Amino acid sequence: VTNQYLTLANEALNDSVQVFHNGLKGRHLIDYTLSVVSNVTRITFASHYATGGADELASADVLEIYYSTKV
């Protein structure tokens, strides 16, 4: 993830986003932040997940995102 963020397909419900990096659950506001851009949720990687961090995202890593959407 070279641009340091990932855009979801929809706007996620508050507190519903869960991010897993190589099977380990990320921590909101520590490993990533959330924002809404053009009615979709954006996950911006920070701290350990950001470029240069201890758990920097790499092409072979598995990133799983779970979230609920508005009806």
Description:
This protein is mostly beta strands. The chain is built from no helices and six strands. Strand 4 and strand 5 form a beta hairpin. It is globular, with a radius of gyration of 12 Å.
Task: Specify the overall morphology.
Answer: globular
* Biggest β-sheet description: 3 strands, antiparallel
Task: Write down the overall mean pLDDT.
Answer: 90
Instruction: Please state the CA-atom Rg, rounded to the nearest Å.
Output: 12 Å
Distance between the termini: 29 Å
Instruction: Give the class from helix and strand content and strand pairing.
Output: mainly beta
Number of helices, where a helix is a run of at least 4 consecutive DSSP H or I residues? 0
Strand order in the largest sheet: 1-5-4
Helicity level, as a percent range? under 10%
Low confidence ranges: none
Helices and strands, in order, run as EEEEEE
Task: Offer a concise description of the structure.
The protein is built from no helices and 6 strands.
Give structural attributes.
3-stranded antiparallel beta sheet, 6 strands, 71 residues, 35% strand, mainly beta
Topology:
Layout lengths: L4 E3 L10 E4 L2 E2 L6 E6 L2 E6 L17 E4 L5
Antiparallel strand pairs: 1-5, 2-3, 2-6, 4-5
